[in-house]
Amino acid sequence: MEDGLQWSRPCSFLLYVVFFFLSAAAVSEANIGDFDDYWRQRKLMADAAAEATYKHDPFEVTNELNRAVHRQEATSSFVRL
């Protein structure tokens, strides 16, 4: 038998559980997002840009896409069979 860490041994399982909880606690206490003003500003700018370009009428978006496709087909140089 191997003498390494095995899941069937209670001590090995306990070691994995303790390691998991310690690493989870270290990550959860990082609070990097709370102190980084640069990324907070970038998020606000991205939210504003998304809100400015968002169109509330889905039919308007669909019609705009359809018009663009038809314009592209009309100017396309592909040979139709």
TrEMBL record:
Domain of life of the source: Eukaryota
Record keyword Signal present: yes
Signal peptide: 1-30
Descriptive protein name: Pectate lyase N-terminal domain-containing protein
Pfam families listed in its UniProt record: Pec_lyase_N
Assigned keywords, A-Z: Signal
InterPro entries: Pec_lyase_N
Native organism taxonomy: Eukaryota, Viridiplantae, Streptophyta, Embryophyta, Tracheophyta
Family, per entry: Belongs to the polysaccharide lyase 1 family.
Signal is among the record's keywords: yes
UniProt domain Pectate lyase N-terminal: residue ranges: 31-75
Record-level Gene Ontology MF annotations: pectate lyase activity
